[in-house]
Design goal:
This protein is mainly alpha-helical. Helices cover 69% and strands 0% of the residues. It is built from 4 helices and no strands. It has helices at residues 5-15, 22-35, 43-59, 63-94. The longest helix has 32 residues, at 63-94. The termini are far apart.
Length: 108
């Protein structure tokens, strides 16, 4: 543990207080990242914590909300992926980029 690890744990506890918004906690995390303040072994836990957080977030939603969100999310994802792929192909042709560099060049 480095000499600033105590500060790391104090800020983590501070971020769990009810009056600290997620945006403030995120900004504090970004500042810590830029300053190089980190705990040496925390990376072992971040993936698992993220997975558990997503599952627990799902428990707060009703089945009707999940179905509604998945319907609108599917349509939005389909539209955005189609637009990005079409735009990539168009820009690839416009800029005369090699076919193997552009998106989905094998489909043309």
């Amino acid at each position: 543990m480095n000499n600033k690890s105590w500060l790391y744990w104090v800020v983590i506890c501070f971020c769990f207080l009810p009056f600290v918004s997620p945006a403030v906690a995120l900004c504090i995390g970004i500042v810590f990242s830029f300053l190089g303040i980190r705990h040496d072994s925390i990376h072992r836990y971040t993936s698992r914590v993220l997975q558990v957080s997503i599952v627990l977030l799902g428990f707060g939603m009703g089945l009707e909300e999940v179905i509604t969100a998945s319907k609108s999310g599917f349509v939005q994802t389909l539209i955005s992926v189609s637009l990005v792929m079409t735009g990539g192909i168009f820009l690839g042709k416009l800029l005369r980029v090699e076919k193997n560099t552009t998106c989905c060049s094998s489909l043309l």
